[in-house]
Amino acid sequence: MADITLTVNGAARTGSPEARKTLADFLRDDLDLTGTHVGCEHGVCGACTVIVDGRAVRSCLMLAVQAAGSEVTTVEGLAPDGELGPLQQAMWDSHSFQCGFCTPGFVMQATAFLSGHPDAGEQEIREALSGNICRCTGYQSIIDGVLLAAERNREVRP
Amino acid sequence: MKLPPFAYEAPTTVAEAVDLLVEHGDEASVLAGGQSLIPLLALRLARPAVLIDINGIGELSGVSADNGQVAIGAVTREYVAEESSAIADAVPLLAAALPLIGHEAIRSRGTIGGSLAHADPAAELPAVARALDAEFVVRGPSGERVIQAAEWFEGYLTTSRQPDELLTEVRFPAAKPGTGSSFEEVTRRHGDFAMVGLATSLVLSGGVISEARLAFAGVSDVPVRATAAEDLLAGERPSAELFDEAARRATEDLDPPADLHGSSDYRKSVAAAVVRRGLRAAADNATRGSN
Amino acid sequence: MTAIAAERYTGASIKRSEDPRILTGAGRYVDDIKLPGMLHAAFVRSPMAHARVLSVDVSEARALPGVVAVLTGAELEAMTIPGPDALMALMGWAGPMPQFTLLATDKVRLVGDPVAVVVAESRYLAEDGCELVEVEYEDLPPVVDAAFALDPGSPPLFANLGDNIARLHSRSEFGDVAATFAGADRVMDFRIDVHRHQNVPMEGRGCVASWDTDAGVLTMHAATQSVHVTKIAVAMRLGLDQDKVRVLAGDIGGSFGLKIGASREELAVAAASRAVGRPVKWVEDRGENLTASGQAREESFDVRAAVSDDGDLLGLDVKMVVDTGAYPGMGAMVPDIVSAMFPGPYQLAALGFESTAVTTNKATYVAYRGPWASETFVRERVLNLVAADLGLDPVEIRLRNVALRTDPPAMMITGRPLVGVTTKESLERVAELVDLPAFRRRQEQARAQGRYLGIGVATFIEAAPGPRAPGGPSGPMGLESMRLRLEEDGIVALFTGQMPHGQSHQTTLAQIAADEFGVPFSQVRVVIGDSDVVPFGLTGGSRSATMTGGVALHGARQLKAKVLDFAAHLMEASAQDLLISDGNVWVRGDPASAIPVSEIAGRAAAGSFGDDVDAVLQVEATFDGGEGGWSGGTHCAIVEIDAETGIVKVERYVAVEDCGALINPAVVEGQIRGGIAQGIGAVLLERSAYAEDGSFQSATFMDYLMPTACDVPRIEIEHLETVPLDADVNFRGVGEGGMIVAPPTVVNAIEDALSPFGVRIYEQHLPPARILELITGAR
Fold first, then answer.
1. Which of B205, C481, C484, C506 has the fewest CB atoms within 10 Å distance of its CB?
2. CATH class held by domain C299-470+626-775
3. Hey, are the CB atoms on B34 and A19 less than 8 Å from each other?
4. Residue C504 contacts A where some CB pair is shorter than 8 Å
């Protein structure tokens, strides 16, 4: 075990995880950030998606020690305490989710995708989110939330 | 599905990494992007005593183009390769295949070298490397050697890299003028591994195919060059009849594996369709002058 | 002073009160729970499908640093009370009762059968400990299909049963079967199979069991569809009085029928917590969920159809075999519902129905969203197969056979009235929406280009909760209860045994209560998930819209009457002259008289009143479902098939459905779309696959393929709202319908697309390789 330091949601955090501990488990167990969910532990369902150094990654496929020195954003860090960011607000308005277990992964993947593709259309968004599995919604309401967020972002842009 | 215990090393130079490989041999696994290795660890199908994490070796990252080649450091992330204009310009087949690898989040971490060292025969990059006769640069205790793609892929998830060697770089030849490429695959869902895939690179000059390179994914325990089809195509003008015959020759001796997703007969039958479609697309690309 | 006008929440897509926490990662699922001193459990699981257990050596595992306890099946048996499956006991199962131990002791009966539990400081260490447990097995021949299970020569899974029959063969007849078949123009025979697939919620099963040694109380943090049913199951198995078990549940990541009662693993974890005197957490990983949590739908049907040359479906004679897997679940009970529902919304004159259920060395059959769904699949396939034979259009044959809405309503031959069923209207509307003639022209043009488009239609009804039975409550599980209380701070609290896991009850029930009581939506709180606090209830069976919506509506009225009686005393007015709206009580015609509800509540709590004043502002309401009713409708899918690869794309999907009045349209539509996605998944992607030796082949998401955003199209939904059946409560359930009718809808479309090849389809799972087989004529 070695001490690691990383920035999580803007704050410096430290820990001493075993090398074999995944980033997902480290966030949830050691840092008490249980917003990131574990759905499969083999990199297929996307529920564990977080943003590391600007890129969406599957935190179940990273060792915590590999995130040392990195900037990590989890779903808890998208907006100040108790508030909703624009994507979250759009998803609320669109009734995007039901049981909520897949939600943090979708929110993080969509956040990363929209920041690189602000004008993406429906088919592109579907493909970008096709690595996140939802069992409840049939996806349409999630896509609508992302489209709404993108539209609102465009209205706000100068 | 928690990972089993292992000793963890994070070398910062290639020399350090090689020393560790010499010390631990086949008791060690090399960790690059982790997108293939970590699931195996989580399923406890892989049990290395030592994990050598090479992500900290800066010299292993980067794309450079010269001498008619594009050299890609083994730890270059797939998304970096996807965004590389050097690759888009000079290795269009690789550029065509990269977006098909899994999903964006996989490509955030997955590496060019890692995918090729893992050598899943249903993956896109091994077929691309085989089609283009890529070169694999490995470093071992006695120095560096270069392995040709035809010799690199030995069997299912097995390469000719020795346990004391590290893959440091992969070199792809720059495409000749008149090249048209395509990566055609049949997947159950968007982003899945190919049930059957085909990397195709054609060079057309004066409307005639001067060079044809076809390599399959998913039809064997290694990527497979369709040499009989390549021989047929060379010197001919593209046509539907030609591509039909090429599809027949490319597939008649195939004996693809069967699994939950498809029988051997299914893969063989689909392979023919994939050849026809792949050739059409590559020929169109060449004719359009795009790539 | 705010405007005095009642806001109308019911019927609007009010934003969910669940979402702020869900969207910000503040949801609280069972794996998020951390208790002081908590340990983690992992299970040693059998790699064999069928074997005797000769020995279990846990000594090395116990010695591993970080491992606190290892309990074998035998040790757990000594510390628990053997008994039947709690859910089956609750549902009154009277059939064969296999004897088995909580964890495997003398034998294992499926790959993944739990043999021992390791309790350690972390899940990582618990799994390490599992690897050190040495189990000696003696292989037994596996029973992996129903045909072998039915063979008296197959090795019995359960010694006390002596064979592998989970439900004895039975036959019932409705109408004059013999005469109907004798008088028919033609009798057609089909064998139709539905494959094994499963619930796969994104959150698996799990719990944190916490034994309080001093109080002798077991607190179970659960992921469950009913805190009370879980409590009963845990109390029974641990030999505790029910008031010594408390079950708490927070957010639940889906279930679809999986998480009811307590599984063998959860009961073992509860016993383990008591044994070690510390909280123990177990959350199954995806491998466990796919392998051992339970599977569904593996049923086969031999069907004879008595048909007229004009396309009347006169009678059906059905033989059903259900593969219930290795341990008792509700699989053996499914044939009863299947037979009751078989006629669907059609005028069937006669039905013969036989069934048998078998045990096999595969995962236990569990309830999966519309467990009886195969009746719709088989019936809707048969209609198309008959239509194809007679040269009739699929919509035409359905319109010919559908029961019309009459007064009194038509009766299903199996005894239930088809009251308020608008199948005919939904069929006609779907035909309009998809413009069938235009599609047929497009289909023909496409075929000329070597492209294969197809259209499929299917209808369904679901008992949501079902029509009123004479003298009894609507729907299963009897009366629905709710406690409603006006809290001191003016919040209207609804205490319900409902346990939403995606159904949005905290929003929908609040909508109803807010409207009926007269407060803003934000002034209603729905309290769930504590067996010490909420009345009995269970979320399932597509009944909560009616049953719980109804008890919320009537309960809110009752509470309001009570509050007004009290307020009348305070305001020195007559209760009949008082109104509540927008959170204020006021005298009709005198807006200045308005007093906030919160003030009324505060004064009731703080003051002391004589015996003639009831200041306890709480009611215990029950509801029997009113007139109840059916939900149902018609779905239509348009597919395109790549005939060279067998890949099927669902191009368009239309659903015209009728669930009566909608509480929250967005919630209703979400439920429908989610069910349809599961149906598409079942047909194109999902299969729980076993090899001939009983080894399980789809234990990861690389092999059990889930539908993604690229597999499910935009789903167009139109609502019909039947003429109200009840004066007040006309909401009916929609939870299961999508999953029931989507499989035949999609399969019908596939068969239509492949009709140039002369394909007929008698199965539900159609991956690309199978499509190619069908095209090339191999069977």
1. B205
2. alpha beta
3. no
4. yes
CATH topology of domain B62-173: 3.30.465
Tell me the residue ranges of DSSP E strands in chain A.
4-8, 11-15, 49-52, 55-58, 71-73
Instruction: Name the one residue in this structure whose structure tokens are 């003696």.
Output: C138
The minimum CA-CA distance between B54 and chain C, rounded to whole Å, is 24
What does the pLDDT look like over C210-247, one tens digit per residue? 999 999 999 999 999 999 999 999 999 999 999 999 99
What DSSP state is assigned to residue C49? S
What is C19-26+479-623's CATH topology?
Aldehyde Oxidoreductase; domain 4 (3.30.365)
Q: Which residues pair with C356 in a beta bridge?
A: C321
Q: What's the one-letter identity of residue B201?
A: S
**Who among C124, C707, C711 is closest to B2 (CB)?**
C124
Could you tell me which chains touch chain A, where touching means 3 or more CB pairs under 8 A? B, C
* pLDDT tens digits along C437-467: 999 999 999 999 999 999 999 999 999 999 8
Q: Which chains touch B (3 or more CB pairs under 8 A)?
A: A, C
Is A58 part of the contact surface with chain B (CB cutoff 8 Å)? Answer: yes
Does residue B234 have a pLDDT over 60? yes
Q: How many helices (H) and strands (E) does chain C have?
A: 21, 26
Ordered by where they begin, the domains of chain A are 4-77 (3.10.20.30), 86-156 (1.10.150.120)
Pick the residue from chain C with its C-alpha nearest to B258.
C769
Q: Is C647 on the interface with B (CB under 8 A)?
A: yes
Q: How far apart are CA C174 and CA C184, in angstroms?
A: 17
Q: Among B44, B106, B107, B111, pick the best mutation site for testing chain A contact (most A Cβ within 10 A).
A: B106
Is this complex scored with an ipTM above 0.95?
A: yes
Give the bridge partners for C52, in sequence order: C107, C138
With contacts defined as CB-CB under 8 Å, which chain A residues touch C709?
Answer: 125-127, 129-130, 132, 139, 142-143
Test A92 with C252 for CB contact under 8 angstroms: no
Task: Choose the CATH number for C33-140+205-252+259-292 among 3.20.20.510, 3.90.1170.50, 1.20.140.10, 3.65.10.10.
Answer: 3.90.1170.50
Q: Which helix (H) or strand (E) holds C628?
A: strand C628-641
Distance between CA atoms of C447 and C461, rounded to whole angstroms?
Answer: 34
Three-state DSSP class for C301? strand
Query: What does R_g of chain C's alpha carbons equal in angstroms?
Result: 28
How far off is chain C from A116, nearest CA to CA, in Å?
Answer: 20
